[in-house]
Amino acid sequence: MRRRRFLWVALATPGVLWLLLLFVFPFYVVLSLAFGTLDPLFLSPVPIWNPMHWIPDQFTYVLSHLAGAAGFYGPAILRTFAYVFIASVGCLLIAYPVAYYVSRFGGKRKGMLLVLLIAPFWISYMMRMLAWVNLLQIDGWINKVLSFGGIFNVHIAWLDGRPSTVILGLIYGYIPYMILPLYAGLDRIENSLLEAARDLGASRWSTFRRVTLPMSKSAVVASLLLVTLPMVGDYFTNDLLSASPSTAMFGNLINTAIEADSQVGKGAALLIIMFVVLLAPMLYYVRMTEKAEGGAV
Amino acid sequence: MTTVNAVSGGRVSWWRNPWRKPRILAAITWGYLAWSLLPVGIAALFSFNSGRSRTSLQGLSMRWYYGDPSLSVLHDPTLQGALIHTFVLGILTTVIAVPLGVAFALGIDRWRGRLPAGFNFAMLMSFVVPEIIMGVSLFFVVTRLHTPLHAGTAGQVVGLVTFQLSYPVIIVRARLLTIGKHYEEAATDLGASRLGAIRRVLLPMLYPAIFASTVLVFADVIDDFVIVQKLSAGAGTEPVAVKIYNTARGAPTPALNALATLLLAASLIAITLGYLGYKLLSRNEGQSSIESFAGQV
What is the ipTM of this complex? Predict the structure, then answer.
């Protein structure tokens, strides 16, 4: 019995050590920097390693600069949640019908449709953004299409800090991550249940509303989490499609702060705040996965 | 169909037909697919542009792949270097992350108790945490502490392994759940040692899952951005994704499109080989097909 257990422990140990050393410990480093001080002479961050001596200066600074005249963190954070909310809803509005169509009416074409749905998953995110950067240039194809072959004079500067461009970019970037889990969830619903509903006289719409939709609820929640969480930490979509401070997001704040020595502590504090804000949805997702793994006691 | 017609006394208009074809859903699906794939196709098309422009096609050529003596992917050392570096990261990370993850999955799955449940929790957190949180915390370790870990290839590989570790673990654990313990117990009853049972019975049954995670990790790493950007040490260690990010908003030549297209081709080849290999490995299980491979995503 004891020897048996030894084997499992030995197998798990390298991975465990790796995670502790390179996932858990770095997070402690962030905490120590966020609760640390600033060297008054060199203006470089000084981490405080002992949690008993942690000081909350960085947090007070960040929190006191959330709103008001000197509030330069608040607007970006609010903007992030607005963008992420709109983009997540947008993703769902497109992804659900698509996943539903492929799972219910894919028929003979299902395999091919699935391949096409998975394809963007394997195209580098940066290439997909590059594609739009090219299309959205002032003399790019989008403006050309909008001008109907030169009838109208269209010179829209899509890439100059437009929230709509950033939100569309987020939808475009993250929607593949939503469609697949949604498809998996919808495909799991027994066809016989839907047939029963139709046989008993329910219309297509009420079958959907009263059978399919309630049964796909957990897939919807999971897929929403899968796009929302990374979107909150996104900074590169905004950098590529807007590059303007007027659309800066939470991730951009962190990304800028960690570049300058004197701002590192604030960057660390912002990172902790982001983590805390996302903690509940993250725990919810982990809990769901653990359940799927069979309790994982 | 006929009964419906009989009841309503003649031909029904298509939207009243309860068995109508889902035209709107089909339109949304095909529209989505066009929207998601055409821009990338256009970006790939422009990589064959014989002119310098990213917005108007001036004939097709291989100029930006190898034709141009100084600016093509083949002749521009920074572009060529980015491509090579991407593959180096992909291979090194896969070689480390997959065995580490498989062993971790086996160990954590069988080693019961609070402690392994905690480690499993840490692993799942590493899966859901936004990449910026992991990337920045490792960035702090590399820049703010005096450890043997430095930015550059080694730092990037270490960061990527940490980020990717959860993929093989989740895939292998899902597979372990469906396999159950019977085969292993039968093997030990028949006289195999514990290790022998794993090596000769369990591991072969896990090959499809291990293979799938190898392909997924590799394809994911060559598309990764945040971790490699945060842990890169200047131009020499910038993979394709970072190169695109740094130059997309400037005035890049179509060579950047060529670079992205080459990466895309590599991803698609890896995934196709992966799918074929997966089919081959799981051919005796009658569940194969694109769907179960997609399920691994």
Answer: 0.91
